[in-house]
Write a structure and sequence with these properties.
Layout (H helix, E strand, L loop, with lengths): L1 H15 L18 H8 L5 E7 L19 H8 E11 L2 H12 L4 E3 L2 H6 L1 H8 L2 H8 L5 E7 L8
Parallel strand pairs: 1-2
Antiparallel strand pairs: 2-4, 3-4
């Protein structure tokens, strides 16, 4: 997957050379790394405004749940690198994983689940549902697209 994205970025940069914006797509990168270990090493506090978790590996077996990309320990890590008001977008076709992600983000006091109205009005939701390769595959197979989004809240005040 990382190689596919890296090739796509290179192609987009190459295509932009013949346009009015030859420096376009210089702010894109794809790094393959273990998020659970190294995420805070790649991003500063509050650096990101959006995170997309599109069709992550469900790790079906209970003994593999610790490898899921959303967990009780990772939700605060996502909150650390996100700016207040930023949104984490999740989409999957696996009901158990969908409920797992909702449970972990909802139990983190730094996130608030978006309402159905907010989700419906967000153009990023439409794009991640229809424009990704996995989204297209799920559509071809008439599978479900289970979506949940979470807004990063302001840090609570320090106790006095």
């Amino acid at each position: 997957m990382a190689e596919f994205v890296q090739e796509k970025v290179r192609a987009m940069r190459q295509q932009s050379l013949s346009t009015e914006k030859p420096d376009a797509y210089q702010n894109l990168a794809c790094v393959r790394a273990n998020t659970m270990k190294f995420m805070p090493n790649f991003f500063e506090k509050g650096q990101l405004g959006k995170i997309f978790l599109c069709f992550p590996d469900p790790h079906f077996k209970a003994r593999k749940h610790k490898a899921r990309i959303v967990s009780a320990t990772l939700a605060p890590e996502y909150a650390f690198i996100m700016r207040p008001g930023g949104v984490v977008y999740t989409i999957t076709d696996v009901k158990d994983l969908h409920e797992w992600m909702i449970g972990h983000f909802a139990s983190c006091e730094l996130f608030q689940m978006l309402t159905d109205e907010e989700i419906g009005a967000d153009e990023c939701v439409s794009i991640m549902s229809t424009a990704t390769e996995e989204g297209k595959k799920v559509e071809r197979n008439n599978g479900p697209k289970l979506i949940a989004c979470f807004r990063r809240l302001e840090d609570p005040p320090w106790p006095e």
